[in-house]
Amino acid sequence: PFVHASKKTPIRWRLQTYAGPALAEHVIKPQIDAFNKIASGDMVIELYNADQLVPTPELFRAMQRGTIDAVQSDDDSIAAPVDVAVFAAYFPFATRYSLDVPTLFNHYGLNEIWQEAYSEVKGVTWLGAGAWDPCNFATKQPIRSLADLKGKRVFTFPTGGKFMQRFGVVPVTLPWEDVEVALQTGELDGIAWSGITEDYTVGWADVTKYYLTNNINGAWVGSYFANSDKWEQVPEHLKTLFKVTMDSSNYYRQHWYWWGEAHYRTKGGKLELTTIPEEEWAQVEAEAIKYWDEIAATSPRCAKVVQILKDYTETMKKAGKPYRYA
Amino acid sequence: MSYEMIALLMCTTLMVLLLTGQRVFGAVGFVGAAASLLLWGDGGSEMPFNASMVLLNWFPLLTLPLFIFMGYMLSESGIANDLYKMFHVWMGPLNGGLAIGTVVLMVAISAMNGLSVAGMAIGTSIALPEMLKRGYDKKMITGVIQAGSSLGIMVPPSIVLVLYGMIARQPVSQLWLAGVFPGLLLAVLFIGYIVVRCKLNPALGPSLSFEERSSISRREKIALLRAGIVPIAIVFMVTGLFMLGVTSLVESSAVGAAAAMIAAMAKGRLSRPVLDASLHKTLSVSCMFMWIILAALCYGAVFDGLGAVHAIEILFLEKWGLSPWGVLIMMQVSYIIMGMFLDDTAMLVIVAPLYIPLIIALGFNPIWYGVLYTVTCQIAYMTPPFGYNLFLMKAMAPKEVTLVDIYGSIVPFVTLMVIGLGLIITFPQIALYLPELYFPK
Amino acid sequence: MFKALVTYTKYVDALNRLVGKVAMYLMFVMMFILLYASFSRSMLNSPVVWAVEMAQFTMAAYYLLGGGYSVILRGHVRMDVLYSTWSPKTRAIIDALTSFFLLFYLGMLLYGGISSTAYSLEYGQKNYSAWAPPLSPIKIIMVVGIVLMILQCVSRLIKDISKFMGVDMLKTYGDVMP
Ligand code: NA
Ligand code: NA
């Protein structure tokens, strides 16, 4: 903004991401810069960070009304009014590796299910999903057993939070940008919002001390959405360009998080690693399968997704190493 | 219309509307709402209400009504009367001693509440009449009370630092610690000024007469020191428990409100009319702040959407070619000028988000910057035409204090604050010593 | 017509006084929720999931429902550099004229509020949290608060115009309006 584009009036989009500035620098900004560069004045996307123009909980609504043209977020955070939103972000133990996400969407039929779900909501078009990082706990006190989780106030996603309540975790939801401060002022004991890469990138590693290596999900599922009318007004070649840059962003996140998880665990220097023994953690995994069945009972479409997740897990187990080691 | 034009239009329209005397929130809200329509058409029509959802999610704001109520409870509870009596008796024998005692009283009140209203109420109702009765220079003492009560936003707990922390995303615990020494420094500057003035001209602050002094026995003097116990207990329960991590920030404000109420009850002063008056004032002041923040959030979001952060950076660094220190001083000067005309809450919500990213990018410490900002707020409270302490002083001062006295009284104290600001800029350790001691990097 | 307007101000003022006096006590509700949360966490070692959210909802109700009453209490600051130099009549007419801007803002606030509330009802929107309470109740309360604010500002507008036209304020409205 404040810089004049070329004389022909470009298509202007306001895209708001769920991510704060430090994270947006990696997960979206390069994509938008590339898009604007290639679109060379035919279309300009202005990027806004978490809560910058619209508070995240109102984001879906804002996109539907056209206050915002496009959104990068998970369906859960923006409270998308579709039944499958529950599977977005971190559905407990749904994925193990970040490659699981594109595999599930492209080869196991989730793309079609998501398209169908969003076709029932007026005004918003779902453009596609990609993988982010795993979900681990970073805390001020060490977590070495399930008992240590009891009573901890943890910043996390609603779905994951609801699930972890079964183990005594007290889920807290705050505007993303307030988390670092809340950890310092005593409103929070920890976070279960990301893997270690983001903990270091956004500064949470400076205000927590321990990192639990057991994760409750291997890869966050996030999506791109657009206001339907605005999307329809975009010419075909720019639609394709946008989708291609979506994939370039999806690709960058694949290797950045994969690199970061190993790098910061071994060379980060700020967080001490702790682990809950496999046998004990298996209780959480077993509980998650019960949770899956509860969610499957909420709608036929959810049942379909849960079945796909089960089939997928089964296939991975059968395939053996390197897909599964036990 | 270009983005620069819209930004310029927003600022000038706001200025004109404010000059008409329309309520600040109405003026700010209108410009924000109209600009979002102009900029984004129908899509912008929900920006004003979106701001209310932002406000809903801003948990630190919960401290605002609770700290305000706490302040009113304290001024009604009579704690201040006992404290004043203590300082009166102990400091009275000195030339200007009652004024010095008032500054110390203001520091104590500041340690128990987060704004300047309680200090103003206590200063004008208790200290001012006593000093006028004893022939103190009215211009000097009106200044003392205005400047002294403004320490309420610097000495922890501080609502201004909570708001700053919310906008700058900085931990309130560190900001509060950072405010301790600057608050004391300013108090020392005020006292130094009083001492020097009264030394040169003892008629400005006559010492207590021998008769009055000898009417109080040594035993009574010692007994008066007990007035300090309750305030110390309250400071511990609010700021102490929060710093120790026992209470969270918002809980500490609830503890403070409850503690002040209990103190008033224990003194037998929690009558129905007192409670009713405190609740009314709390609602009135909280609504004023909340509605201004609501309006300013919309204005600020539109401003942000125009890319104003980037524009400020280009203006300061590229067009004017300022050095980092030049930028910092420029910002403080702009705050002081804006603070004359604008409500400081609106100033914070609209302007601070533009400045803070640049401050951090230039390598300055945002905690220290919060303290600098707070000093400029203190100045803004006192400088005409728009200043909360000025308004309060006009409303609460006894008849013999004229408007000319009030305006004249602020000159030396604003000068002292600017000197204090200069000292804190030159020696950042004044602010940063405590936070770095308790939160080592 | 004039009589109807006077009646309007009487009813609206009375309504806002009533709602405001109730809203005023919400401060205690916030206080108790937070004290309970603090006690439950530090003494009973069982943190309360809903405490801060509930306190935030209460605060939204507090300042929005109390908005109209705060106008009656003249709680909203103005920049009075020129304002304080004008005669009461001049103030009244300028206030009446500029209240167009105020009402425009409040109107947009209401428009957004209604649309957002309708959405929350249509889609059963829940707060973004594990507690996940429905958002429509608090949004409805917020909209009511905005409506009360608009009603009060219109009441004030009627009084400002009356004052400018030389109506005996004390006799007609029981209000001197400094
Ligand atoms: Na204070
Ligand atoms: Na001022």
Automatic annotation (TrEMBL), chain B:
Statement: the UniProt record of this protein carries the keyword Thylakoid: no
Pfam families associated with the record: DctM
Membrane topology field: Multi-pass membrane protein
Keyword list, A-Z: Cell inner membrane, Cell membrane, Membrane, Transmembrane, Transmembrane helix
InterPro entries: DctM (IPR010656), TRAP_DctM (IPR004681)
GO MF annotations, alphabetized: transmembrane transporter activity
Transmembrane segments: 55-75, 87-109, 144-167, 173-196, 223-246, 252-270, 282-302, 322-338, 345-364, 370-392, 404-431
Annotated compartments: Cell inner membrane
GO cellular component entries: plasma membrane
Domain TRAP C4-dicarboxylate transport system permease DctM subunit residues, every copy: 13-430
Main location: membrane
Official protein name in the record: TRAP transporter, DctM subunit
Source species of the chain: Desulfomicrobium norvegicum (strain DSM 1741 / NCIMB 8310) (Desulfovibrio baculatus (strain Norway 4))
Automatic annotation (TrEMBL), chain C:
Membrane topology listed for this record: Multi-pass membrane protein
Source organism superkingdom: Bacteria
Assigned keywords, A-Z: Cell inner membrane, Cell membrane, Membrane, Transmembrane, Transmembrane helix, Transport
GO CC aspect terms: plasma membrane
Segments forming domain Tripartite ATP-independent periplasmic transporters DctQ component: 30-161
Pfam family, one: DctQ
InterPro entries linked: DctQ (IPR055348), TRAP_DctQ (IPR007387)
Transmembrane segments: 18-37, 49-72, 93-114, 134-154
Compartments, as annotated in UniProt: Cell inner membrane
Record family assignment: Belongs to the TRAP transporter small permease family.
Name the record gives this protein: TRAP-type mannitol/chloroaromatic compound transport system, small permease component
Source species: Desulfomicrobium norvegicum (strain DSM 1741 / NCIMB 8310)
